[in-house]
Amino acid sequence: MKKLIGLLGVMAISATCYTASATAQDAKLTDRLDNAAAVMGEIMNTPDKGIPQSILADAHCVVVVPSYKKGAFVVGAQYGQGVATCRTPHGWSAPVFVQLAGGSFGFQIGGQETDLVLLAMNDHGLEDMLHSKFKLGGDASVAAGPVGRNAAADTDITLHAEFLTYSRARGIFAGIDLSGVVLSQNTDDTRTEYGSDLPFQSVLHGEAPAPANSVRFVHTVAKYFVVSKDNQ
After folding, report:
1. What share of the chain in percent tops pLDDT 70?
2. Is residue 204 part of a domain?
3. 127 exposure class (CB count in 10 Å sphere: 0-12, 13-18, 19+)
4. What pLDDT does residue 220 have?
5. Nearest partner of 118 among 69, 178, 72, judged by Cα
6. How many whole angstroms separate alpha carbon 144 and alpha carbon 111?
7. Could you tell me which residues come within 8 angstroms of residue 193 by beta carbon, excluding any fewer than 6 positions away?
8. Is 88 inside a domain boundary?
9. How many independent structural domains does the chain possess?
C-alpha cells in the first residue's frame, strides 16, 4: 500500500510539473503572437515610415519576428523566433511558428533588439513558405523592401523578389538584406499551439481555425491588408 501511495504521489507531482511547463509554454507563444501584432501595428502607425500600401496589398504571406530582451537572438544558435500567416480565399490563415538562423543575419543586426518583417510577394514565395526549410537568396529570391506609405515599388529588384524584408531597430524602420538566412518551421511550437502535428501547409492554406490567442495577430495583419486594398 505504501508503495502504491508513493507511486501515486510521484505521478501527481509529475503531472503538476507537466501542466506548469505546458502553461509556461502556452504563455510564451501567446506573448510572441501579441508581440508580433504589436510590431505590425507600431510599424504601420508610424507616419510615412511604414510598408508601402501597394506592397501590403499584394503580399501573399507575412512573417513577423519580434525581438525579445531575453534570448531572442542567441549567438551561434537561433537568431529569431516568429510567426507567419498567409492569405487564403477566406481571409488570412491561422498562424504557424517559424525560426530564422544563419547567413549574414547575425552580422547585420549585431546585438541589437530588432524586429523583422518578411513578406512573400508571389505564388512562388508562397510555395517556398510551405516547405519545411529554405534559404533566402538561395532557394527564394529576396530584397530589402522599400519604406514609406506611397513609396514606389516598381524597381526590378522588388518586382522580381519573392520576399521583401524589413527591420526595425532603435526606432529606425528600413529594408534589410537577409540573403543567406534560413527560414524554417518551428514544429515544436506549432504542435504546442494546436495540440497536434497539423501539417504546416494545411494551416497556411486556411484549413485550421485560428486559436484564441492568435486572433489579435491575424486580425492586425488583415486590418492593414484591407487598408492597403482600399487605398490603392
Report:
1. 72
2. yes
3. middle
4. 96
5. 178
6. 20
7. 29, 95, 97, 211, 213, 214
8. yes
9. 1
Say if CB 88 and CB 206 are below 8 A apart.
yes
Bigger pLDDT: 102 vs 1: 102
Asked if residue 197 belongs to a domain, the reply is yes
CA distances from residue 145 to 135, 167, 173, 174, 190 in whole angstroms, order as listed: 18, 9, 10, 8, 28
- Distance (Å, whole) CA 228 – CA 173: 19
Task: Check: CB of residue 146 under 8 Å from CB of residue 175.
Answer: yes
195 within some domain: yes
Helix (H, G, I), strand (E, B) or coil at 90: coil
Q: Per residue in 3-25, is it b (16+ CB within 10 Å) or e — as a string?
A: eeeeeeeeeeeeeeeeeeeeeee
Q: Contacts by 86-90 with C-beta closer than 8 Å and gap 24+?
A: 86/60, 86/61, 86/62, 86/120, 86/126, 86/129, 86/204, 86/205, 86/206, 87/59, 87/60, 87/61, 87/225, 88/205, 88/206, 89/206, 90/206
Element (H, E) at 135: strand 133-135
* pLDDT above 50: residue 184: yes
C-alpha cell at 159: 518586382
Q: What range does the domain containing 112 cover?
A: 31-230
Question: Which is more confidently placed, 17 or 75?
Answer: 75
